[in-house]
TrEMBL record:
This is Quinol oxidase subunit 1. Transmembrane segments: none annotated. One of its GO terms (molecular function) is cytochrome-c oxidase activity. GO terms for cellular component: membrane. It holds the Pfam family COX1. Keywords: Copper, Electron transport, Heme, Iron, Metal-binding, Oxidoreductase, Respiratory chain, Transport. CDD domains: Ubiquinol_Oxidase_I (cd01662). Belongs to the heme-copper respiratory oxidase family. The lineage of its organism: Bacteria, Bacillati, Bacillota, Bacilli, Bacillales.
C-alpha cells in the first residue's frame, strides 16, 4: 500500500528539483495564510458577495489586473532564471529539460496570462466610463470570461508542481508537442489551460464589441468616441476572427494526442507546417490585439498631458482600422525559411512592411500633438516618452525582419528575440503601465507615489536597453534562440552577462512598482475628485473617483469629441448654470455565482483530461467537469431574477456621499 502511494505521488507530483520543492512550500504557505486571514477576519461572505459573484465591470477589471500582476511576477522569475543560466558559459543552474520548460512557460504566461488580462483590466475599467454606459452589454458573460481566464491560468500554472510543465515552446509546434516527444501531461496542461482562457478571451471580444456599438451615450457618434475606445473596438474585431483559429488549432492538436489522430504527424499522413500556419494565423494578429489598445492609451495620455486635442483624429482611427485588417495578412513572415516559394514570401514581406505605415502615422500624430503643447511630465507621460524611441527601434527592426532574404540570416537568432521583446515590452507593457498610472486615481481614488514611480520608470527603461540591445549583437554573432548553454570559445559571454544585469534592473523596477501600490493603499491621500489630473478630456473624468456602482447618475448627452473638455469650457463662461439632473431609478444586473462555478467545472474538466494520460481513471473527473459546465448553462437558462433597480433616494445618498449635489 505504502509503495503504491509513493509511486502515485512520484508520478502525480513533480519531484527531484529543489526549486520545485521551494514552489511547493510557497504554494502551501500562501494558501494557508489566505485561508487564515479570510477565516480570522470573517471575510468569506464579503469575498463571495463583493468579488467572486460580482458582475460589476470595475471589480472584474481589478481582478484581471491583480491576476496580470501575479503573472508578471511569475513570468519575470522565469525570465531571470533563463538570464542567470545564460549569463556565463557552461552554467549549471538549469538542465536542458528544465530550461525548455522555463522558456515555454515564460512566453505563454507573458502573452496569454499577463498581457491579455492587463488589457482586459483596462477594457473593463475604462470603456463603459468613456462611452457613458452603466455597465457592459453582457455583465454575466463578462464574469464568465474572467473566471474562464482565471481557471485556465491556474490550470496552466499548476503544471509547475503537478504532472510537469510543457516544454515544446510557447506555441507548441509539432512534432515537439506530439506524444512521441511530449508524452507526459505537461503538453495537455498547455492545451487545456490556453483553450479555457481563450474561450473567455473570445467572449470578452464579443462583449466589448457589442458594448461599444450598442451602449454609447446619446449623441456619441462613432467619430466622437475617445481614441482608447476606438482602439478597443479594433482589437475586438481581431479577437473575434483570430481566437477561433487558436481554438481549432489546439483542438486538433489534442485530438492528435488523445485520440491518435494524425493532423500534424508526418508518419500518419499529417503535416506539422499546417499547425504552424494555423497557430500564426492567430499568433500574429494576437500581437496587434495587445498593441492596438496600447496605441489608444498613448493617445489619451498624450492628449491629456499636452493639454491639446489629439492631432489627426480621423487619420488615427483610419490607421487603427487598417491595422486590424492587414494584421491577418502577415503571418507567414514568421517562417520565410519554410520554403513556400518566392511569390508567397514576397506577398507577406510587402504586407508586413505595409503595416508599418499606419503604425508610423500614429507616432507622428503623437509627436504633433505634443508639438507646442503645454506638456506636463507626469508619471503616465514618462512612460509615453519611454515608449516612443523604444517602439521606433522595434518597428525598424521589424521592417528588417520583413525583408525575406535578410530574414534567412536573422531567423531563429537572438536578433529576433531582441526585436520581439522590443515591441512587446516597449510597445505593450510601457503603454499599459502608462494607462495604469493614468486611470489608477479614477478607479481607486488616489494617485500612486510619484517618487517611487520615477525610480520604477528609470530602472525599467535603463534595464530594458541594457538587457536587449546586446541581444541584437548576439544575434549577428550567431547565437540562436532556445539555447540553454554555450562554450567560452563562442565569444558571447560578455554581452550575455550585460544582458542579465539589465534583466535584473527591470526586476528591481517591478519591485518598486509593487512597493508603490502597497504604499498607496496604506498612505495615499484619498479624493473623490472627478478630474484627478485636472486636464481630463473624456467622460470618465466627469464622474466621482472611484465611480459608484452605476457609474453615471444621469446618462450624459454627448456634444462632441472630448466631451468633458467641452463641458469644462462651457462652465467657464459667464452666467453658466448647470441643469438640475432628472434622476430616475437605475436598472442594474444582479450578482451571480454561476460564472465561478462554471469556471471551476472547466478547471475540473481540463485537469481530468490532462492527467488522463498518466492515470486513466482521471477521465471520470474530466467528464464530470464537462457535465458541470452543461448544468451551469442549463441553470442560467432558467434564471429569471437577474436584475434589480436602484431607487432614486439611494442614488441621491450615494451622490451626496461622493460630494455631488443632485
Amino acid at each position: 500500500m505504502l509503495e503504491n502511494i509513493k509511486t502515485f505521488a512520484s508520478t502525480f507530483f513533480v519531484t527531484g528539483d529543489p526549486m520545485i520543492y521551494g514552489a511547493d512550500v510557497s504554494i502551501v504557505l500562501v494558501s494557508l495564510a489566505a485561508l487564515f486571514v479570510l477565516t480570522y477576519f470573517k471575510k468569506w461572505g464579503y469575498v463571495w458577495r463583493e468579488w467572486i459573484t460580482t458582475v460589476d465591470h470595475k471589480k472584474i477589471g481589478t481582478m484581471y489586473f491583480t491576476a496580470a500582476l501575479l503573472m508578471l511576477f511569475r513570468g519575470g522569475v522565469d525570465a531571470l532564471l533563463m538570464r542567470v543560466q545564460l549569463a556565463a558559459p557552461d552554467m549549471k543552474l538549469l538542465h536542458s529539460e528544465h530550461y525548455n520548460e522555463i522558456f515555454t512557460t515564460h512566453g505563454t504566461i507573458m502573452i496569454l496570462f499577463m498581457a491579455m488580462p492587463f488589457m482586459f483590466a483596462l477594457f473593463n475599467w475604462v470603456v463603459p466610463l468613456q462611452i457613458g454606459a452603466r455597465d457592459v452589454a453582457f455583465p454575466f458573460l463578462n464574469s464568465v470570461s474572467f473566471w474562464l481566464f482565471f481557471f485556465g491560468a491556474m490550470l496552466f500554472n499548476l503544471s509547475f508542481v503537478i504532472g510537469g510543465s510543457p516544454d515544446a515552446g510557447w506555441l507548441s509546434y509539432p512534432p515537439l508537442s506530439e506524444n512521441a516527444f511530449s508524452h507526459g501531461p505537461g503538453q495537455n496542461f498547455y492545451i487545456w489551460g490556453v483553450q479555457i482562457s481563450g474561450i473567455g478571451s473570445l467572449a470578452t471580444g464579443i462583449n466589448f464589441l457589442v458594448t461599444i456599438l450598442k451602449m454609447r451615450a446619446p449623441g456619441m457618434k462613432l467619430m466622437k468616441m475617445p481614441m482608447f475606445t476606438w482602439s478597443v473596438l479594433a482589437a475586438c474585431i481581431i479577437i473575434i476572427f483570430a481566437f477561433p483559429v487558436l481554438t481549432i488549432s489546439l483542438a486538433l492538436l489534442f485530438m492528435d494526442r488523445f485520440f491518435g489522430a494524425h493532423f500534424f504527424t508526418i508518419d500518419g499522413g499529417g503535416n506539422p507546417m499546417m499547425y504552424v500556419n494555423l497557430i500564426w494565423m492567430w499568433g500574429h494578429p494576437e500581437v496587434y490585439i495587445v498593441v492596438l489598445p496600447a496605441f489608444g492609451i498613448l493617445s489619451e495620455v498624450v492628449s491629456t498631458f499636452s493639454k491639446k486635442s489629439i492631432f489627426g483624429y480621423k487619420s488615427m482611427v483610419f490607421a487603427m482600422m487598417v491595422i486590424s485588417v492587414v494584421s491577418y495578412f502577415t503571418w507567414v513572415h514568421h517562417f520565410f525559411t519554410m520554403g513556400a516559394g518566392a511569390d508567397v514570401n514576397t506577398f507577406f514581406a510587402i504586407s508586413t512592411m505595409a503595416i508599418a505605415i499606419p503604425t508610423g502615422v500614429k507616432v507622428f500624430n503623437w509627436l504633433f500633438t505634443m508639438f507646442r503643447g503645454r506638456i506636463e511630465v507626469s508619471q503616465p507621460m514618462l512612460w509615453v516618452m519611454g515608449f516612443i524611441p523604444c517602439f521606433v527601434v522595434g518597428g525598424a527592426t521589424g521592417v528588417m525582419l520583413a525583408v525575406a532574404p535578410a530574414d534567412y540570416q536573422y531567423h531563429n537568432s537572438y536578433f529576433l528575440v531582441a526585436h520581439f521583446h522590443q515591441t512587446l515590452i516597449g510597445g505593450v507593457v510601457f503603454p499599459y503601465l502608462a494607462g495604469l498610472y493614468y486611470w489608477w486615481p479614477k478607479i481607486f481614488g488616489f494617485k500612486l507615489n510619484d517618487r517611487l514611480g520615477k525610480w520604477a520608470f528609470w530602472l525599467w527603461n535603463i534595464g530594458f536597453y541594457v538587457c536587449f540591445m546586446p541581444q541584437y549583437a548576439l544575434g549577428f554573432m550567431g547565437m540562436t534562440r532556445r539555447l540553454y548553454t554555450y562554450g567560452w570559445d563562442m565569444g558571447w559571454a560578455p554581452l550575455n552577462m550585460v544582458s542579465t544585469v539589465g534583466a535584473f534592473l527591470m526586476g528591481v523596477g517591478f519591485l518598486f512598482q509593487g512597493w508603490q501600490i502597497i504604499h498607496g493603499i496604506l498612505y495615499a491621500e484619498r479624493s473623490n475628485a472627478t478630474d484627478s489630473w485636472g486636464t481630463g478630456r473624456s467622460l470618465e473624468w466627469s464622474i466621482p473617483s472611484p465611480p459608484p456602482v452605476y457609474n453615471f447618475a444621469v446618462v450624459p448627452q454627448v456634444k462632441g469629441f472630448d466631451d468633458w473638455y467641452l463641458t469644462k469650457e462651457e462652465m467657464k463662461k459667464p452666467g453658466y448654470k448647470a441643469e438640475k439632473p432628472q434622476l430616475e431609478s437605475i436598472h442594474m444586473p444582479k450578482n451571480s455565482g454561476i460564472p465561478f462555478v462554471m469556471g471551476a467545472c472547466w478547471f475540473l474538466a481540463g485537469f481530468g483530461l490532462t492527467m488522463e494520460t498518466a492515470f486513466s481513471w482521471m477521465i471520470v473527473p474530466g467528464v464530470i467537469g464537462l457535465i458541470g459546465v452543461g448544468l451551469c448553462m442549463f441553470a442560467r437558462s432558467f434564471s429569471y431574477d437577474t436584475d434589480y433597480y436602484i431607487p432614486v433616494d439611494e442614488v441621491k445618498r450615494t451622490e451626496a456621499s461622493l460630494g455631488r449635489v443632485v
